[in-house]
Amino acid sequence: MAGSENFAHIGRSVFIRGDVSGSEDIYVDGQVEGTIQLSGNSLTVGPNGRIRANITAKNVMVSGSVEGNIEAGERTDMRKSAVVKGDVRTRRIAIEEGAFFTGKLEILGEIKVQPAPGAVAAAASSAPSHSKPLTSEQSK
Description:
Strand content: over 45%
Largest sheet: 11 strands, parallel
Number of strands: 11
Radius of gyration: 25 Å
Order of helices and strands: EEEEEEEEEEEH
Number of domains: 1
Helix content: under 10%
């Protein structure tokens, strides 16, 4: 996770029911029920963390338990003490030996920047045209 200046910690004795969203990394060692939305940031579920929520984050690292779907834009890590029950969509995944995972796994492809169809057509039409066939005199 990033430096502590953009880091929120949900402690062991904290219980949150509802929607959690933000623009900083979050470490959860307590309980969260609802949804967690951290599209550009990371979520770490500590060994005491108990999540019953659908999660959307850039990176997700689980050492505790998650019951719900995970969608990670970059990476999902399941440590040996992790218990994950739900579907996971991610670009990269690491599952340590001993982790428990029940659900469907979908590895997302890399984002490829495609030129717009109009840009390709414009480039093709602006290319010089050599449509005159060579005559036998020109080829000598």
